[in-house]
Write a structure and sequence with these properties.
The protein is mainly beta. Helix content is 6%, strand content 56%. It has one domain.
């Protein structure tokens, strides 16, 4: 569950300033490869997570967004002794009239023979997205 702030703007009945923030599960990461640097892109449908603040249909016309994401739940245990994670980029896109947060991650570490499950190392991300709908 996340938080949201919606501020109506004067000049247009649909214009609004929106900030949404929350935590999402980092599902979709496969760390069963070798020790080379691995890159992952995770997408989260913000219109579904915040339907009151970002109701569809949205379009690229008149919409400006700024996104940030960070590592929330990260640990090293005996099962994952040498993994390093980073958020490379966070951005937004419109897909089927809904606002989607795209987060590019990078991870590296662990021996070649070791299979590391992402939830033992990285299980969640935080996000904050500010949107101007005009």
């Amino acid at each position: 569950m996340g938080q949201e702030i919606v501020v109506p703007l004067t000049g247009s009945p649909t214009a609004r300033f929106v900030t949404v923030a929350g935590t999402v599960d980092a599902d979709g990461i496969d760390t069963s490869h070798n020790t080379t640097l691995q890159r992952f892109t995770l997408e989260f449908n913000l219109s579904d997570l915040h339907p009151g603040a970002l109701p569809p249909p949205l379009s690229d016309y008149g919409l400006r967004a700024s996104a940030q994401a960070g590592l929330t739940s990260i640990n090293n245990s005996d099962d994952a002794p040498e993994w390093t994670w980073a958020v490379d980029r966070a951005g937004t896109l419109i897909r089927n009239g809904k606002l989607v947060l795209a987060v590019d991650l990078a991870g590296q570490g662990g021996p070649d023979s070791e299979i590391v499950y992402h939830d033992a190392v990285l299980s969640a991300l935080t996000y904050q997205v500010t949107v101007l709908v005009g």
